[in-house]
Design a protein that fits this description.
It contains nine helices and twelve strands. Strand 4 and strand 5 form a beta hairpin. Helix 6 packs antiparallel against helix 7. Its cofactor is heme b.
Length: about 425
Amino acid sequence: MKTIETLLSSLITSLSLPILPLPIIMPLLLYLFLILPLSLPHIAFSSSHCTTQTTTKTFQKCMNLPTQQASIAWTYHPYNFTLELAFFGSFISPSGWVGCGLNPTSPEMTGTRALIAFPDPNSGQIVLLPYILDPTVKLQKSPLLSRPLDIHLLSSSAAMYGGKMATVHNGATIQIYATIKLKPNKTKIHLVWNRGLYVQGYSPTIHPTTSNDLSSISTFDVLSGSSAAPQHKDLTALRVVHGTINAISWGIMLPMGAITARYLRHIEALGPAWFYAHAGMQLFGFTLGTVGFGIGIHLGQLSPGVEYGLHRKLGIAVFCLGALQTLALLFRPNARNKFRKYWKSYHHFVGYSCVVLGLVNVFQGFEVMGASRSYAKLSYCLGLSTLIGVCIALEVNSWVVFCRKSKEEKMRREGLIGSSDKGNNSGIHD
C-alpha cells in the first residue's frame, strides 16, 4: 500500500495536476464490486398468478412460464389423448409477433412446430399462422415461411386480451389457443415460446437474443403438471458473478494497467515503481478475468441450445490476448537487446487490442443479459468515464510538457536561453 501511495504522490508532484489520489481509486473498485452485482437484472419471473379462466373456456390446470411473463393453461383428456392449450403472451412492439409451439423431440427451438400471431400487414387484424422452425431458421439463411404442421393439430385461434376492440401495442396481451392430439401415453411435452419486434410480410423476423429470450423453453407433464424446466434462478446468480468479475477485470483493471504504463513510465522520480504497478494490475486483472472466463464456459455447458456467438468469440479472443501478454513477461528481452524494440511493438499491439476488445465485450455482455438500460451498465459507465477522464487529463498534460520542452530545446539551440535555464528545467522528464 505504501508503494502505491508513494507512486501516486510522486505522480501528482511531477505533473502538478489534481490527479485522482488513492482514496479515489480504491473506492472506485469497491464501488464497482458492490454496485454491479446489486444492479444487474435478474432473469424475469412472472409475478402474476396464472389463470385457468378465459372469456370462452375454463381449463383444468395452469402454470407460469419462467420468462417473458408468459403463462399457459391446459386441459388433457386421457381417453382420446387430446390436449387443449391456451398460451398467454405479450407483444414488445406494435408491429411485432408472439408465438408458441411444441418440439416433438427435444427442448430447443430448432424443430419446433409453432403457431405465431401478429397483425395482418394489410388489414391490421390478428392472424395466427403455422410455422416449422427447421435449422435454416436458426442460421437465418432464408425467411421464415408459413407451412402446414406435421403434428395432429385439431384447431387453433388467437385473440387479443380485451376483445376485438383491443389494439396491438408494446405490452399488449394475446391469447393463443390450440387443440392437439398427442401420441398415446406420451404426456410430457417440450413447450417453446418467444416474441419479436417485426414481421416482414408474413415472415416473422428474429427475436431478441437476451438470456431470457434464449431460455424460453419448458418441459412439463400435461397429466401431472410437474415441470422439468431449467433452473433459471440458479443460473441467474452465476451470470451476475460472471458479469461482475469480467466487467472489473477486463473492463477496469486492464485499462488501468495500460494507463499506468503509458503515462507513468516517463516520470524518472518514480523509478521502477511504475513497472511493478503496471505488472501487478495486469496480472491481477488477468487472474480475475480467467476466473470470469471459466465461469462463462461453465454457463455455456449449463445452457444447452443457448448460444451467444459474438460474445463467446470476443471472450475467447480477449482471453487469448491476455494470456499472450502474460507469457510475454517470460520472454521480455533486456533493455540493450536488439530484439527489445520488436518485443515492445508486439507488447503494445497485443495489449491495446486486448483492452479494446475487452471493453467491447463488456458492453456486449450487458446486451446479452438484457441490461442495456440498467443501473448496472450506468454504474460501469460511471467508473469507466472516471478512468477516461484521468486518461484525458494525463494525455493533455503530456502534450503540454512535450510542447514546452520542444520549445525550450529550440530556443536553446538558437542561443536564446543558456545552460543555466536548462538546469532550472531539469525536473521535467519525458
